[in-house]
Amino acid sequence: KPAEEFPAIPEIDEETPLPIKSDLLNEIIKSTSFAISHDDLKPALTGLYLKLEKNRLTTVGTDGHRLVRYIVNDYETNGFTGEIIIPKKFLNLLGSLLVDDDKTQLWISANHATATSDGVKVLTRIIDERYPDYESVIPKENKKKLVVNKERFLGAVKRTSIFSNKMTHQISITPDKDTVLIKTEDPETASRGQEEMKGEFSGEPLTIGYNANYLKDILSHINDENIVIKMDTPISSTLFNGETTEKNRDITMLLMPIRLND
User: Fold this and answer.
1) Dist CA 94 CA 97 (whole Å)
2) From CA 74, how far away is CA 82, in angstroms rounded?
3) Residue 39's closest CA among 22, 58, 64?
4) Together in a domain, 69 and 146
5) What is residue 18's predicted lDDT score, i.e. its pLDDT?
6) Are 150 and 216 in contact (CB under 8 A)?
7) Please, what is the angle between helix 212-220 and helix 150-161, to 10°?
8) Where is 198: in which H helix or E strand?
């Protein structure tokens, strides 16, 4: 095509630096991007939400089923402060640039975000939408607590989910005092599977259903040996955290349950 048909690079005025170290930004992208929506009918959810304050950075990714909130409590900035939503495609491109702290720089203007690194410049339009009130969906009263080994639990979910319905990917989790039962059944194909493993559970017993694919996503993005799962009822959202917490980091993952077939 003729060069004249190539989109013109927009002129950007009054850019403000957005100082985030490459290793931190890379960790945020890896921890949150899987939960960002692909649904163009909900444009606000197709990007990473960032709230930058003088001494705190909050980032959120969600698709309405899964949510990840990553808070940095020792963040300091003399640059950009405020709220923005950056598209997921831009974040994916950033992943290939984030190599050297000294070479990658982010800039924010009224309508655009720009990344520069070693002669490469990546530019995107900021998503101009109001981000939903994510705080209202993060439960505060989930007192039923299950602690499991990450790799064993993830493995059990993967094996059991092979027999789940190919449309719903439905599995159930039933924790007891020192065991967890992972179970699935697909009436359409008359297939079923279950696996029991060790776990530490405190609270009233319950059985709760999840989309196995979403659950595997959550579990695989928690970087810890053991996972703490906090539940309330079979129809309320579940919280997932690593058992150990890194200083000045608060990472919360949330998964909505699905109603189990009778």
Assistant:
1) 5
2) 17
3) 64
4) no
5) 86
6) no
7) 160
8) strand 191-198
- SS3 state of residue 10: coil
Amino acid sitting at position 253: M
Query: Dmax over Cα atoms in the chain, in whole Å?
Result: 69
| Crossing angle (nearest 10°) for helices 88-97 and 22-32 | 140
> What is the number of structural domains in the chain?
2
- CA–CA distance, 96 with 26 (Å, rounded to integer): 10
Q: Are residues 16 and 93 in the same domain?
A: yes
Higher-confidence residue of 141 and 201: namely: 201
| Contacts of residue 155, Cβ cutoff 8 Å, sequence gap at least 6 | none
**Does residue 3 lie within any of the structural domains?**
no
pLDDT at 62 (0 to 100)? 98
Owning domain of residue 240:
139-255
What is each CA distance from 244 to 6, 24, 56, 138, 223, in whole angstroms? 50, 18, 21, 20, 9
pTM for this predicted structure: 0.91
- Pair 227, 242: CB distance under 8 Å: yes
Q: Is residue 162 part of a domain?
A: yes
- Report d(CA 51, CA 235) in Å as an integer: 30
CATH code, domain carrying 201: 3.10.150.10
Distance CA 162, CA 174 (A): 18
Q: Do residues 53 and 81 lie in contact, with contact meaning Cβ atoms separated by under 8 Å?
A: yes
pLDDT of amino acid 9: 75
Q: Are 142 and 202 in contact (CB under 8 A)?
A: no
pLDDT value at residue 262:
63
CA 24 to chain CA centroid, nearest Å = 15
Q: What are phi and psi of 232, to 5 degrees?
A: -135, -70
Is 116 in the same domain as 175?
no
